[in-house]
Design goal:
Oligomer: single chain
Low-confidence stretches: 12-62
Radius of gyration: 19 Å
CATH class of the largest domain: Mainly Beta
Helix content: 10-25%
CATH architecture of the largest domain: 3 Solenoid
Mean pLDDT: 80
Number of domains: 3
Strand content: 25-35%
CATH superfamily of the largest domain: Hexapeptide repeat proteins
Shape: globular
Number of strands: 28
Structural class: alpha/beta
CATH topology of the largest domain: UDP N-Acetylglucosamine Acyltransferase, domain 1
Length: about 270
């Protein structure tokens, strides 16, 4: 470890009680002034605030004090909760759903509330629902109420410092988001998925576990890329498409189409 890295680590540990795993498992972008004064970090904590919140002290303060509403008590909700809990320094979490059958259940130690009841005294949220259209609908509903949409990345995800992440994005453990990749509003990059360099993923799309987007792939809105699917570099996938699990996409896909198989072909 270099002298500068050692200095940075000592200051972070002294001020914020950080652990090695929390620091070393994420890319960190740091800068110090000429006098070795103020330290800033943009990719340190699991819960990421809007990009205007660059100051670590402010970010840390908001994380500990605010209530974060997690909408969705199904499988995706459990994955998002786990990402927050494993970081060891999550905000006050409120778990809610609009499915009455889930009210009162416990998910990873958090009781499920009715969504209408959970909106009291909450200023920020994250929609943890895998279904693209449902995620879009709920995000719009909560945004219209003036709530702030947070994006979340697991501490064991790898996110390039040049990648662009929009509000509501979720990046799961062991996922990779490459240089100059762009994830728009409400996208999900699930466990072990790869969004390589210069990819563009439009709003509310879902890249399922272990799927791979080669460099320069464009994915439209509300697209589902199935588990283990592979999209060759430079491919264009239109809005509302579905790529079946394990498929290998060699050609562009028209909006609304469904492709399956190896090589992937339209599913008629």
């Amino acid at each position: 470890m270099s002298q500068m890295s050692s200095l940075i680590w000592r200051r972070l540990r002294r001020r914020y009680g950080l652990h090695w795993r929390a620091v070393l498992s994420r890319p960190i972008v740091t800068e110090m002034d000429a006098q070795g004064g103020e330290l800033r970090s943009t990719l340190l904590v699991c819960l990421c605030l809007p990009r205007s919140c660059r100051n670590l002290t402010h970010t840390d303060h908001v994380m500990r004090s605010e209530k974060l509403l997690i909408v969705g008590a199904g499988g995706q909700g459990k994955v998002v909760l786990d990402a927050l809990l494993v970081a060891g320094d999550s905000p006050q979490l409120v778990l809610a759903d609009d499915d009455e059958s889930k009210y009162g259940r416990a998910v990873l130690g958090h009781k499920v509330s009715a969504l209408s009841d959970a909106l009291t005294n909450v200023k920020s949220f994250h929609v943890a629902i895998g279904h693209n259209a449902a995620r879009e609908r709920l995000t719009q509903r909560l945004t219209d109420r003036g709530l702030t949409n947070r994006y979340i990345a697991h501490i064991r995800a790898s996110v390039s410092s040049s990648a662009q992440l929009s509000e509501g994005v979720f990046i799961a453990a062991h996922a990779v988001v490459g240089p100059d990749a762009r994830l728009d509003l409400g996208c999900i990059v699930n466990h072990g998925a790869v969004v390589d360099h210069d990819c563009s993923v439009a709003a509310y799309s879902h890249i399922a576990p272990n799927a791979t987007l080669g460099g320069g792939v464009h994915v439209g809105r509300r697209v589902l890329i199935g588990a283990g699917a592979n999209i060759l570099p430079g491919i264009y996938i239109g809005d509302d498409c579905v790529v079946g699990a394990g498929a290998v996409v060699l050609d562009d896909m028209e909006p609304g189409s469904v492709y399956v198989g190896v090589p992937a072909r339209p599913n008629n």
